[in-house]
Amino acid sequence: MKCGPENFTEILTDHGVCFTFNSNHGQPLYVLSTGAEYGLKLTLNVEQYEYMPGPHDAAGVKMLLHDSKEFPGVAELGLAMPTGTHAYVGIQVVQIENLPEPHGDCASQSSPYYQDYSYDNCQMACLTGLLEDTCGCRNHFMPHTLGAPPICTLEQYYGCYMKVIDELKQRVREDCACPVPCDFLIFDPALSFATTSVFATDRLLAAAWRSGDLGERYLAAMETTQRMERIKLSRFQALERDAQLRLHNLSDVMLRGVKDTIERAEVTLGEVSNATHSVWDRKHYLYRWQAYHVQKNFIRARDAMDERTFDYLAMGFQEIGNLTASRIWALADPNVTSPGAREALYLTVVTSLHAKMDLCDRALDNYTQLYSAYFNGTPIFRYKFVRELRNDNVFVTPTHLLHTALNHNSYALKYGARLGTDIERFRDTLARFVQLATQAFDNGTVDTEDMYHADVQFMWRGRRYLHSKSTFDEECIEYPLRVLEDRMTSFERLLRNYDDIMTESLRNIVSLKASLADLEDSILTRLNHSMRLASDYFTVGNLSKLEIARELTSQNIYVGISDLKVFFQSLRSRGQKVYDNWDKIAEATNAIWQVVIDDEDMLEYYTYKNMTHFLRNATEVAMENREVFNDYRQEFDFRFLIGSSDSLFLKSLQDLMSDMEGYLQTSVIGTDFIRENFLQLDVFYREKSYEQITQQIGYDEFALLCEFSHLHCLHFVLFGISYCPW
Known about the structure:
The protein is an alpha+beta fold.
């Protein structure tokens, strides 16, 4: 048959509130057979989650098998059974019958509290009387008559009861005359245990899930326990306060120290970059002016001279030489007898030769002017650059470079000076042709050998002039422009290197700034919200610990913590790069400044314009820049700004989250919940008989042997059981 709450009676015992089974004397329950299948089967939930700190530390059930007429001393005599087990209690009943005086010492006494006499009832009644006399009250489980004596108040309990109870128990043992009862039962239990099977655990778990109110009661009990148990509450509060403090410190460092340093570093890098670019732009502008000035006012003058003299001087010199030689031979030809024809031919030859000689003179003048312009740095033309004044051209003239162009290598040194000589000697060959033409016209004869040498010399001088002119143009005239273009290219390369370093630093800073802004809008805001909720748990009390635990262990928090760790790592690695780049920026800046200051071809312009910052000593400028950038490096070193704040906070938060995860795990009704709260109990008779021990007045030896232990077979009443959850 099934049993339910109606089969159990709530009673007060020395172990607290207990429940008695089969306590109805008028309608006792019977069993007709032995074994676990014919006994009492219970599945108990001890509700360990409802436990509060108290005098007992164990978890489980205490069971006492006793005569229903006796006081159940569960605290001292109960059998303990743990949760997570299947307990089997097999019982053997022993009936004791003692003799009264004069053959024995059994007896019974009347009591105002109990109808049936037993030794335990007698001692409890005696203890109750002594306690009433001493404290004027009784403990809650002690017997009474119509509420007298009254239950001790808290003041009486702690002020009197707790102080005298041990002494009174000793007096009961010494002074209270409680004889052995003449008839009583002894229940001899045999206990065995087995671990609750997986199948049984799953079955109990399914039943627990079907019972919706169990989960609600469990969570409510957990919440109450968390608030009422000082140790748990204090631990949670300590973890919350520590995490709150660490978060405040970290946020202060991140949103003030790190953020401010990053922003100031970004501004400073921008200012430094703008200042360096301003210097570079000015110098590059001057380079372009110089290149334009050299090209237009020097090389362009050479081009004009080429168009007017140099290119025509030896143009077609081979044809000219052959034509001149043939005409001179014609003047010496005896077949040409006409005076007019000979005179016309002579004038033609001499006129053309004198024209070439005049061209040589003008070419020599041009060469002299061009050479002097490069040697002295004097512009020939006066082209103006952009909006600059024409008169300012003289101050940007690269005098040293122009002068160097005439002797920077052996070719320039040789052919730069030889070109003028080659022009003069080319003119001399033309004059020799004039002499031969005059001789032929006057005498009608030409020396063959002289004519041959004059022709060969003319050809050789023409080739030599062209070679000297080509080398002079390449190595002298165009050299300054090539150097200036190389200088600009090198200067542009310095800026690209500078910009690469600056861009890397700015990229690292901008990346950190963006990451910090994202963290501020995401995880830091979420953490502050979560920690504020945790604080409200203690100050306002409008939230449950389960809600706090779910908030602090949410996926967003875990993702945010991962982002924080990445940021801290990035802050240190990128901070190291920015820190190292300050040295590189200093070197790149000094490289630009060195080009600006060491350009001797611009010193005159710097002085003319009073550009004092460009007239400083390059070494001093380099030292000054290194000092300034070293100060920047120290000021904006955010590698260690975070210090140990991140590790301390993450450790504190991890401790809090671990505690919350543990709490969440315990809030789940699972196999651990079943093992910690449920046990199965089978109580049954081992034998379908009981042992009877009876004292006799007297026997002979034979009778004694026959009657020493007589067993009776019967259908028996199931015993009374009192059990208490710890």
